[in-house]
């Protein structure tokens, strides 16, 4: 009989985007997120579709051990933050906006962890009362004519907050990260702490605790070619320890 080891792995919910595939809309999560979470968090995975009226957020929150909010080509609809003004650059995925809002509330109520990558960091900040800025331009994103690979290889340094979760997990005070975003945090939610900043002061990573619910999110993409980047692996391993309820974060050598 084949021994099943997956039962010991925590269950991570990953929220899908709504993307057009041919003539239809699909619930989509890029494989690089799934592989990064499975391999380096050592988690079992379940995909949650962004169909807010088709999911039972409290029931999903009770079933999973935590959730991961991934990056996406879409931006958060601007009426969800700031002064409610319309505008901003699309594309938008308002069904994901609504799904994440409901699911994040339920997961925090269930006292389970929430992790964010790129759009996920922005979603967390907005859900907790923060706002976004939409003026970052090519300082944080490759030129619009860059290739797909070139877009993810647009990089800059970040300063890791001394004594913070990321600084301890990575064993350093600086990191070089890819940068694939035109939007970013403007007003930081009061329940979040800055974990990393770009040279121009843009917040690049955050953490927080809402009761027993731990929050960790980064603005960059550690899932991109994680197999070749020890710092990206360390971030996923930090996510994995937090998913298992480990609050003491060992310092990397």
Question: How does this structure look, described?
Answer:
The chain is of the alpha/beta class and 253 residues long. The protein has one domain: Class I glutamine amidotransferase (GATase) domain (Rossmann fold, 3-Layer(aba) Sandwich), CATH 3.40.50.880. Helix content is 26%, strand content 25%. Strand 2 (17-21) and strand 3 form a beta hairpin. Helix 2 crosses helix 3 (94-109). The relative contact order is 0.16. Residues 1-5 have low confidence and may be disordered.
Features:
9-stranded mixed beta sheet, alpha/beta, two-stranded antiparallel ribbon, Rossmann fold, 253 residues, single chain, disordered N terminus, 25% strand, 26% helix
What profile does the largest beta sheet have? 9 strands, mixed
Helix content: 25-40%
Structural class: alpha/beta
Percent of residues in β-strands: 15-25%
Give the integer mean of the pLDDT values: 90
Radius of gyration: 17 Å
Do you know the CATH architecture? 3-Layer(aba) Sandwich
The CATH superfamily is identified as Class I glutamine amidotransferase (GATase) domain
Determine the number of helices (DSSP H or I, runs of at least 4 residues).
7
């Amino acid at each position: 009989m084949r021994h099943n080891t997956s039962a010991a792995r925590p269950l991570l919910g990953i929220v899908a985007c709504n993307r057009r595939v041919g003539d239809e809309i699909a619930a989509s999560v890029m494989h690089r997120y799934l592989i990064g979470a499975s391999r380096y968090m050592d988690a079992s995975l379940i995909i949650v579709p962004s169909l807010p009226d088709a999911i039972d957020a409290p029931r999903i929150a009770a079933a999973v051990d935590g959730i991961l909010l991934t990056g996406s080509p879409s931006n958060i609809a601007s009426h969800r933050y700031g002064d409610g003004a319309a505008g901003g650059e699309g594309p938008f995925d308002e069904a994901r906006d609504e799904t994440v809002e409901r699911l994040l509330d339920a997961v925090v109520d269930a006292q389970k962890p929430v992790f964010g990558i790129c759009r996920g960091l922005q979603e967390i900040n907005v859900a907790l009362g923060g706002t976004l800025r939409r003026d970052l331009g090519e300082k944080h994103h490759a030129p619009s004519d860059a290739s797909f690979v070139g877009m993810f290889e647009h990089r800059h340094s970040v300063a890791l907050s001394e004594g913070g979760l990321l600084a301890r997990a990575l064993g350093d005070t600086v990191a070089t990260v890819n940068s694939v975003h035109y939007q970013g945090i403007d007003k930081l939610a009061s329940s979040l702490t800055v974990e990393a900043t770009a040279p121009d002061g843009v917040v690049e990573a955050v953490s927080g605790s809402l009761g027993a619910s731990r929050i960790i999110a980064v603005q960059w993409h550690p899932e991109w070619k994680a197999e070749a980047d020890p710092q990206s692996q360390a971030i996923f391993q930090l996510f994995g320890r937090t998913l298992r309820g480990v609050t003491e974060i060992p310092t990397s050598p």
